[in-house]
Design goal:
The chain is an all-alpha fold. It has a domain of 45 residues. The protein is built from 1 helix and no strands. This is Phasin protein.
Length: 68
């Protein structure tokens, strides 16, 4: 039979392990969300850069109207 101190110690240890597991899961979810956000930002940056490059090339190579 267990005495009360040992039961409390085991209950505390079990609770601590459960809290650490929850914290680990929350941290992993937060990191995954941050990574997803960073990937989306990079995609937006690449898309904007590509659009700007196309527009700049069109402006640079546009025919010049000599009548002006």
């Amino acid at each position: 039979m267990f005495d009360i101190a040992q039961q409390c110690s085991e209950a505390g240890t079990t609770l601590m392990h459960a809290q650490l597991a929850a914290l680990r899961a929350y941290t992993q979810a937060m990191l995954d969300g941050g990574l997803l956000c960073a990937e989306r930002q990079a995609d937006v940056y690449r898309s904007t850069l590509a659009t700007g490059t196309v527009a700049a090339r069109q402006i640079l190579w546009a025919p010049v109207d000599s009548k002006r």
